UniProtKB/TrEMBL annotation:
Belongs to the imidazoleglycerol-phosphate dehydratase family. GO terms for molecular function: imidazoleglycerol-phosphate dehydratase activity. Keywords: Amino-acid biosynthesis, Cytoplasm, Histidine biosynthesis, Lyase. One of its GO terms (biological process) is L-histidine biosynthetic process. Pathway: Amino-acid biosynthesis; L-histidine biosynthesis; L-histidine from 5-phospho-alpha-D-ribose 1-diphosphate: step 6/9. SUPFAM superfamilies: Ribosomal protein S5 domain 2-like (SSF54211). This is Imidazoleglycerol-phosphate dehydratase. GO terms for cellular component: cytoplasm. It is found in: Cytoplasm. It comes from the Bacteria. It catalyses: D-erythro-1-(imidazol-4-yl)glycerol 3-phosphate = 3-(imidazol-4-yl)-2-oxopropyl phosphate + H2O. Its EC number is 4.2.1.19. The keyword Kinase does not apply.
């Protein structure tokens, strides 16, 4: 059974297409017009071991908010579609990732209940053309549209680039664990029988 999805979303502010293969090898291409964000999406894919293609055009003359948030919406929708009924997946994933002085912890549950806890102070307002506060906005959009409970906690860090990179890598690794199939799991990993 193929765990893939292609989602397209066009609004008055953005036009975004996301292609996702959960059973890939971490191959990614991202073109959002925001170089640092592209880099983070590629790292998310690489550490999540899923193939990802993101093509996004947005009103960057305003700022990056619409492009980043809407990319999160479409990626969340693609995750939900690719996961289908979630049968056989491990459901939970946790990862600790260091990046030089930074250390990030991400723990998530593919629960069907969207919730984000984001406990990270980002010292610099920008990394390149990327607004640091959009890290939280992107993750919230993914959570809401994929139905994921996500906890992000920064345990150490001073450099904003390192902090955000550690968070994205940890998200990828936690997703890789949570979406992994286990033949011992009959149906879904829930006593309710549905996620």
């Amino acid at each position: 059974m193929s765990r893939t999805a292609v989602i397209e979303r066009v609004t008055g502010e953005t036009a975004i297409t996301v292609s996702l293969n959960l059973d890939g090898s971490g191959q990614a291409k991202a073109a959002t017009g925001i170089g640092f964000f592209d880099h983070m999406l590629i790292l998310l894919s690489k550490h999540g071991l899923f193939d990802l293609r993101v093509d996004a055009r947005g009103d960057l003359e305003v700022d990056g908010h619409h492009t980043v948030e809407d990319t999160g919406i479409v990626l969340g929708q693609a995750l939900a579609k690719a996961l289908g009924d979630k049968a056989g997946i491990k459901r939970y994933g946790t990862a600790f990732v260091p990046m030089d002085e930074a250390l990030a912890m991400v723990s998530l549950d593919i629960s069907g209940r969207p919730y984000l806890v984001f406990e990270a102070v980002l010292p610099s307002e920008r990394v390149g053309q990327f607004d640091s506060e959009l890290t939280e906005e992107f993750l919230r959009a993914v959570c809401v549209h994929a139905g994921i409970t996500l906890h992000v906690r920064l345990l150490a860090g001073k450099n904003t680039h390192h902090i955000i990179e550690a968070i994205f890598k940890a998200c990828g690794r936690a997703l890789a664990e949570a979406t992994r199939r286990d033949e011992r799991i009959q149906g879904v990993m829930s006593s309710k029988g549905i996620l």
